[in-house]
Amino acid sequence: MNKIIVLLAVVGGFLFTSCQEDPITLFGYDHYVYFDKFWKDEAYPGTAKADSTEVTFFFLDESQNSMNVDLVVAMAGRKLENDLNFQLRVVADQTTALPEEYTLQDHYTFRALPVKEGDTRFQDTIHIQLNRSNRLDQMPEGYRLVLEIVPNEQVKAGPYERSRSVIRVIKDPVRPDWWNAEVTGYLLGTYSATKYKLFLQHVPGADELDQEMIENNPDQARKLALEFKQWLAENPSEDENGPIEVPV
After folding, report:
1. Per the count of CB atoms within 10 A, which of 95, 96, 102, 185 is most buried?
2. pTM of the model as a whole
């Protein structure tokens, strides 16, 4: 009985948010695949805003010419008994990336993963390959790759606002949300892409620093900052602001 309630809740959400004209059959065998992020503002109830996946080659070694971007996909419909394959295609009029700057697979797979008690939807992660491009150095705003799910007999696209995914490739990383005034004043100092890259490269565990650690485990956050300060003392470095320093 609980499984039926969950199914009705998930599909019911589709009926309210989808711009598709075809009705969703509650007890049919259709599977509706969609992206976790909204590529455009939600039509109803209008609370979700458009979001994109932002990536950069900045942290990769120069010898690495490609990287995989993780995209979370979700599915409504009956629980999968077997893996479900689906295709993606490029939305040409919204894409500024060149064909050689990405590599799409013939198909992607939504795995028939175990469903935990309490789950309200099925979810998986796919990987999109991006290829390094020299022209990115002359593109301050970067370029964009927009993908959409291709409907077929086995797979239907979910609500229109989530049937596409926007990937933005930028030259320099954007400052993490957790690098706020407190982090600037008491831990790591003024943000720069170069400082962040050195921090990640030379301090074990630096990639785990986030808002949760800062709030719930400040001693560990301070320890990471102190290790970075020690590394800088032994390896003086500069960025666009001059010598790199940390205030901790």
Report:
1. 102
2. 0.74
